[in-house]
Amino acid sequence: MEILLRVLAGPPLWVWPLLAGLIVLGVMSSRDRVSAIWPMALLPLLGLTGLPSLMKMPDPVTAWTSFGAAYALGALVGAWKQRRTLLWVRDGRAAMRGEWFSLAFMMLIFWTNFAERLLTAIAPVVLTNLPAKALLPAIKGLGAGFFLGRVIAVMRAPRQAGA
């Protein structure tokens, strides 16, 4: 129990409101909605929060190759998913069916970054092993790519005339 309390108390205070905000945003995404397009363009930036640690990885070739391949795959998955949930686009707004993928990918990015920082603090040698050198960047790339793919799908969607 003491270790759990140290893990929860160790991160900066802003981490927990960020987590709460991401959960709220993800739950809102689970409902059918009409929203402005421009905030969607900010979500790919969430996936880029792990880039500073990616640049410090001990094996940059493995890290960037893994990140890049997963980023491309994530963009394909995000575009595919967005095309399935997008109802219409017009006047700078988009209507979408509710889905849980957004919450899942936000949590994937958040907890991957959290776990990486935790490992850096308590067991940095783990990050030098091949699975960690390839898996952590791949997870980050998948998440970042997913949100970029969604934005691209919305931008490429045919526009409907205003009602």
Description:
This protein has 163 residues and is mainly α. The chain contains seven helices and three strands; from the N terminus they run ααβαααββαα. Strands 1-3-2 form a three-stranded antiparallel beta sheet. α2 runs antiparallel to α6 and α6 (101-122) packs antiparallel against α7 (130-156). The model has no long low-confidence stretch (mean pLDDT 89).
Strand order of the largest sheet: 1-3-2
Number of strands: 3
Low confidence ranges: none
Distance between the termini: 57 Å
Largest sheet: 3 strands, antiparallel
What is the averaged pLDDT score?
89
Query: Any idea what the radius of gyration is?
Result: 17 Å
Number of helices: 7
CA-based shape: globular
Order of helices and strands: HHEHHHEEHH
How big a fraction of the residues is strand?
5-15%
**What share of residues is helical?**
55-70%
Q: Which structural class fits the helix and strand makeup? A: mainly alpha
Helices and strands, with pairings:
Layout: H1 2-9, H2 15-29, E1 33-36, H3 43-47, H4 51-55, H5 60-85, E2 86-90, E3 93-96, H6 101-122, H7 130-156
Antiparallel strand pairs: 1-3, 2-3
Tell me briefly what this model is.
By secondary structure, this protein is mainly alpha-helical. It has helices at 2-9, 15-29, 43-47, 51-55, 60-85, 101-122, 130-156; strands at 33-36, 86-90, 93-96.
Keywords:
8% strand; three-stranded antiparallel beta sheet; 163 residues; mainly alpha; single chain
